[in-house]
Amino acid sequence: MPSFILPAPSQIATAFWTWREALLLEHLPITLAETLAGLIVSVILGVAVAAAMHLSPVVNRLVYPVIVASQTIPVIALSPLFLFWFGYSFAQKVAVVVLITFFPVAVNTADGLRSADRELLAWMRASGADRWRILRMVEAPNAMPHFFTGLKQAATISVIGAVIGEWLGGQSGLGIFGRRASSSLKTPELFASVILLAVMGGLLFSLVSWAERRFMAYRSQDHL
């Protein structure tokens, strides 16, 4: 099979070594920064929106359909809006990451807030606890496993969002490197960038999983 269709592992390794400085020092930091910034914004917005939907039935009825609808619209269809609002900037790539990663964080966190033990909630209300105390003491801790589930999903797809954002309007990043390699039929270089993206996504997933284990271990000790 021709190497421009499916290169040998040795060719991919050679391409990676040849372009190691450009990949690791120029393009990787940009894509990683876009990904992390998008994830941070998604966590802040996702948790805030989930809490608002949980606390207010009106907000839930208004916002939840919008969140679902946002996932049915192809990102490419929104690219003119992103370019109009943010231009060819770092914020434009972050906005694409947020659009893709916000949904799992918000929905999973909202589901976790709603799934608190009913008997415990009734006991807290009977004890005179106000709404914020119930949220802080019962519902928020109960939602954490769901939150981490959503965050792990978001971490894996955040890399995709960063690449799409670079494709829509970028000058550098692993997505741009791969696109240029593809247009030049330099498939080994394309595979090198794809593998690097996969490693980055896997490391982000592992980092969130580690944070989840640490939190759950701390929570277990706190309840002893």
From TrEMBL:
Residues 28-209 form the ABC transmembrane type-1 domain. This is ABC transporter, permease. Belongs to the binding-protein-dependent transport system permease family. Keywords: Cell membrane, Membrane, Transmembrane, Transmembrane helix, Transport. It is found in: Cell membrane. It is a multi-pass membrane protein. One of its GO terms (biological process) is transmembrane transport. InterPro entries: MetI-like, MetI-like_sf. The chain crosses the membrane at residues 36-55, 62-88, 94-113, 154-178, 190-211. GO terms for cellular component: plasma membrane.
